[in-house]
DNA sequence: GTATATGCAAAGGGTTTGCACGGTT
DNA sequence: AACCGTGCAAACCCTTTGCATATAC
């Protein structure tokens, strides 16, 4: 898969640098990671990489559609690979855990919004806040 | 209504200061305003008010449930009064306009998420990105 | 060899905090 | 009169940017 990524980068006129492949690998392994988390993961094996590089690399990887980000909660954006089908992000305000569901389940909703406002909603871009089963049960506060 | 707000503040042990009433009024008039926008509005009549006060006041007003905020797009949170029924926010990535719909239309979706994950989704807290009718038609880029 | 990426450090926006003064109760 | 709330300034986090060096092509 890393070979495929090199391919994609080249096709878009980008160079395949170690940092770019490291970030891509980290995103793939972590699923839903912030830039800081990605850097921390990379530092376990490659301590030299810089945070600003992670930001710049993520921009490139989004441009070539290997990665997307979603705004979840109030903190940093979280990045994830665009390998599988589009999905929604549910972030628990109690424990911070992020769960996913295929984006298709929101289709009736998206359809209704389009009918009523003419608005084309991208439900994958923003995470949805709430409480996971466990935290809802234990009434934890955020 | 400002008298009612004074009442609510007092009930929660907060003082009814001019700044708090100014912020509440601004939020009511502006609908969907960022802290900066709220401050700008207030400065038209009361130039002395400080931005950090706006932040602190918004925190208080949220605590007593006179105001809520939603994260829309990548910028600052936007605040709005909790007078009407809960609603969803749709932000156009083309023109930046924010439209609303009653939150009830998302109930089937919320229900389905609860069934499949046990997750209690708060769909009002995060704005939904997309394209409004006009911008979707003209294919504008963000 | 050349243009692009990186590391570093500094700047930038938005938000929070410490402190002394001022205002509400 | 007591205490809470404000203004101001500085600190803070996250993200972006300028520049010289390093590196993929």
Please describe what this structure looks like.
Chain A has 142 residues and is an alpha+beta fold. The first copy, chain A, has two domains: 3-71, Arc Repressor Mutant, subunit A, CATH 1.10.10.10; 87-140, Ferric-uptake regulator, C-terminal dimerisarion domain (Dna Ligase, domain 1), CATH 3.30.1490. Chain A contains six helices and six strands; from the N terminus they run H-H-H-H-E-E-E-E-H-E-E-H. In chain A, the strands form two sheets. Chain A has a three-stranded mixed sheet. Chain A has a two-stranded antiparallel ribbon with strand order 1-2. In chain A, a hairpin with a 7-residue loop joins strand 1 and strand 2. In chain A, helix 2 (18-30) crosses helix 4 and helix 3 crosses helix 4. The termini of chain A are far apart. Chain B binds a DNA duplex (25 and 25 nucleotides) through helix 2 and helix 4.
What CATH architecture label of the largest domain in chain A applies? Orthogonal Bundle
What kind of assembly state do the chains in view correspond to?
homodimer
What name goes with the CATH superfamily of the largest domain in chain A? Winged helix-like DNA-binding domain superfamily/Winged helix DNA-binding domain
Helix content of chain A: 40-55%
Number of strands of chain A: 6
Largest sheet of chain A: 3 strands, mixed
Side by side, the strands of the main sheet of chain A go 4-3-6
- Could you name the CATH topology of the largest domain in chain A? Arc Repressor Mutant, subunit A
Helix-strand pattern of chain A, N to C?
HHHHEEEEHEEH
- The best one-word shape of chain A is globular
* Count of domains of chain A: 2
β-strand percent of chain A reads 15-25%
Query: How large is the count of helical segments of chain A?
Result: 6
Terminus-to-terminus distance of chain A: 39 Å
Based on secondary structure, the structural category of chain A is alpha+beta
Largest interface: A-B, 33 and 32 residues
């Amino acid at each position: 898969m890393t070979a495929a990524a090199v391919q994609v980068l080249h096709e878009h006129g980008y160079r395949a640098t170690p940092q770019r492949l490291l970030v891509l690998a980290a995103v793939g392994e972590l699923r839903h990671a912030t830039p800081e988390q990605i850097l921390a993961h990379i530092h376990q094996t490659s301590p030299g990489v810089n945070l600003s590089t992670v930001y710049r690399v993520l921009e490139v990887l989004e441009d070539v559609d290997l990665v997307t980000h979603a705004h979840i909660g109030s903190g940093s954006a979280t990045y994830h690979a665009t390998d599988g089908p589009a999905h929604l992000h549910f972030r628990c305000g109690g424990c911070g855990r992020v769960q996913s569901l295929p984006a298709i389940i929101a289709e009736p909703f998206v359809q209704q919004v389009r009918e009523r406002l003419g608005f084309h909603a991208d439900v994958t871009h923003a995470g949805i806040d709430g409480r996971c089963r466990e935290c809802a049960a234990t009434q934890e506060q955020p």
